[in-house]
Automatic annotation (TrEMBL):
GO terms for molecular function: threonine-type endopeptidase activity. It holds the Pfam family Asparaginase_2. The active site is at 165 (nucleophile). GO terms for biological process: protein maturation. It comes from Caenorhabditis brenneri (Nematode worm). This is Asparaginase.
Length: 337
């Protein structure tokens, strides 16, 4: 695969992460760098879905029945649109299908209820009807996934000591609109039919823009775009991405965003639950804008990359030792963009 991208003049800030990892692998961060150059959340996730090192698309973990069941989600701050697919086994790029569900006007035009999530055969039929590339389930099974299946089946190691859900977030600095998305093969040896946090509204991803009234009839804006990875059931219980976004957007006291997230993690995350996330936050008042990128997790390694306003891509190889004697059993890193 070529690693060359033409530089874009877009105002789109984009960040990509490669999923919570148990082991360090520098190549994962470089793949995130490559995906950041694609220009959109959808195209970034599509890139990662082609690379078997990542737990999404081709390379997804196998279920206990040695099958592939992918899931993906997409959200936009425009009209708070959301779409997700789960337990889908015959589509090369489930992230593209999720975005299509979120933005397809078919139901509205017919005065029907617009679904948020399609699963299993229904999701597969939808993908085929809308001309997405279809494959046999076997075409999504990589050699690495087979090896991982055998390893964990025979040794019965902890199922979360592998790669996890990947994600991407973006904010347009002109419109202050945001997009976010995830793609995942789920946990290794998961039960067939299990849906992870990617499919749950508010847990795997969240993008929201809010406007505030200032003195003298002035207005300010704040946008957050966030996506998560890790132990899906715990992320669902915590309403992870939506609750963090709400706390950030509700803040009127100028509290550091890292401290807002720290308080949430202390209050809401179950002991022992593995999690990770990246977030972009933009604040705008008149011509002034501040941009912040945050990466936070309690896994050993979370590879990520960000393309900023200067069109330069920065790679982040965020590492954490779960056995370290810190007050918080997690890491939060914050960077001004």
């Amino acid at each position: 695969m070529s690693r060359t991208r033409n530089k874009s003049e877009t105002t789109e800030l984009i960040a990509v992460h490669g999923g919570a990892c148990a082991k360090y692998d520098a190549s994962l961060a470089e793949d995130c760098r490559f995906a950041c150059g694609t220009g959109s959340v959808e195209s970034a996730l599509t890139d990662l879905e082609r690379i078997e090192k990542f737990n999404c698309g081709f390379g997804s973990h196998l279920t206990i029945d040695q099958e592939v069941e992918c899931e993906a989600s997409y959200m936009s701050s425009r009209n708070m649109s959301f779409g997700a697919v789960g337990a889908i086994s015959n589509v090369f790029h489930p992230s593209r299908v999720a975005r299509h569900i979120a933005e397809n006007p078919w139901w509205k035009q017919r005065r029907l209820l617009h679904p948020l999530i399609l699963v299993g055969r229904g999701a597969e039929k939808y993908a085929q009807k809308n001309d997405f590339p279809i494959c046999s389930p076997e075409e999504l099974i990589s050699n690495a996934a087979k090896d991982s299946y055998e390893k964990y089946l025979h040794k019965m190691l902890h199922p979360y000591d592998t790669h996890d859900t990947v994600g991407a977030v973006s904010i347009n600095t002109n419109t202050m609109e945001a997009e976010s998305g995830t793609s995942s093969g789920g946990i290794v040896l998961k039960h067939s039919g299990r849906l992870g946090h990617s499919c749950v509204y508010g847990s795997g991803t969240w993008s929201e823009r809010r406007q505030y009234v200032e003195p003298f009839e002035e207005f300010s804006e704040r946008t957050i775009s966030i996506c998560s990875t890790g132990h899906g059931e715990s992320l669902v219980k915590a309403d992870f991405c939506r609750e963090i976004a709400k706390r950030v957007l509700d803040d009127e006291e100028g509290i550091l965003y890292s401290e807002i997230i720290r308080e949430f993690l202390r209050e809401k995350m179950e002991p022992g639950a593995r999690f990770g996330a990246i977030a972009l936050i933009a604040d705008k008042f008149k011509e002034r804008m501040s941009l912040e990128f945050l990466i936070f997790h309690n896994c050993r390694y979370l590879p990520a990359a960000v393309r900023g306003r200067d069109n330069q891509i920065r790679v982040f190889e965020s590492k954490f030792d779960p056995d370290s004697c810190t007050d918080d059993k997690f890491l939060i890193e914050s960077f001004r963009m």
